[in-house]
Amino acid sequence: MIEELLLYICAVAALVGGSAMIVVRQPMRVAMALIYCMIALGGVYGLLGVHVIAVFQIMIYVGAVMVFMVYAIMLLDVRDTSYIRRYSALLWPGLVAATLLAAVLLWAAQRTVAPTAPAGAAGFGVQSFSVSFLSEYWLYFELTSVLLVVAVLAAVAVVKARSRRHG
């Protein structure tokens, strides 16, 4: 009972964080909302029993990727006047669309029955994930790391170019 309540709390927290990413205008606040959403999703994964994914969610996405994103945002000198307004002009249409989407999802959830896993189905384990990750996906992971470093270097170059132009 308490696990189910915690699952709903984490799911609502992830929804709130995701909604805040869409609504808020300042880049740093958007990044903080994304961190909040990723931590809540880590809680959802943990409560659903896929602890490996929960740990990777927190360690990789929150711990590494979001640190790079926050670092890049902090390096950018944002002097755009469009960030003065706190919320986007699309706030109300977005809220209406989100309400309609939630209503459709609730209606669909009430009409469908959750499928059950077959009796012999194996769960998700660390060993199968490790073998799959190290044999198939390691190159993509490393290329993503290089891409993030290049993005940070590009942000630094843009800031230096602007500072040279503006004195």
Short synopsis of the structure:
The protein has 167 residues and is mostly helical. It is built from five helices and no strands.
Describe what this molecule looks like in 3D.
It is a single chain. This protein has 167 residues and is mainly α. Helix content is 77%, strand content 0%. It contains 5 helices and no strands. The protein has helices spanning 2-23, 27-47, 51-75, 91-111, 126-165. It is flat and about 60 Å long. The model has no long low-confidence stretch (mean pLDDT 79).
- Report the mean per-residue pLDDT as an integer: 79
Q: How big is the Rg? A: 20 Å
Low-confidence stretches: none
The end-to-end distance, rounded to whole angstroms, is 62 Å
Largest sheet entry: none
In total, how many beta strands? 0
Strand content: under 5%
Number of helices: 5
The rough form would be described as flat
Order of helices and strands: HHHHH
Strand and helix map with partners:
Elements: H1 2-23, H2 27-47, H3 51-75, H4 91-111, H5 126-165
Helix pairs in contact: 1-2, 2-3, 3-5
Keywords:
single chain, 167 residues, mainly alpha
